[in-house]
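Q: What would this chain look like folded?
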Amino acid sequence: MGIAASELSRFVIRPTLIYLGRHSTTAESLLLGVAASQSALGSALHDRRGHGLYRIAELRHQALWDDYLALDPERASLVRGLASQHAFLSGPHLELTVNLRYATAIAWLLIEEQNTPLPEPDDLLGMARIWRQTFQPQGRLRDFTCAWRACVSPMNQVAC
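A: My prediction, written as structure tokens:
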């Protein structure tokens, strides 16, 4: 059983996006859809494809730090502030599984790094395209929309 979409949004995604100065309704909806598509809102937090709610691969995590965050020390410091003090140093990829706000920040930055304009908040296909581009290049758009309808839609605000 995963996390209720309304609680994930209210207690994790929204505060993280506000902290990063990136909050919008679309960004919040997109991250909910990504979490639904990648892990059924936390029903499965680790597999060969990656870690945590967003199933971020270790190589992608490392590349984001090396190729994107390293170029913006202020933003890197902001994101590093979300990570656990000692655990991050000994197991940075584990933070993607155990630290929801850190994982959300990393997922958002992977999206932002693509520099793709965000669709309207109700444009599921537009969000699905960003999900596929950023997280699942071989994914099908219907995988995202089906996960959204099963886990996120207003009629089903409890966990999948």
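The chain has one domain: 5-151.
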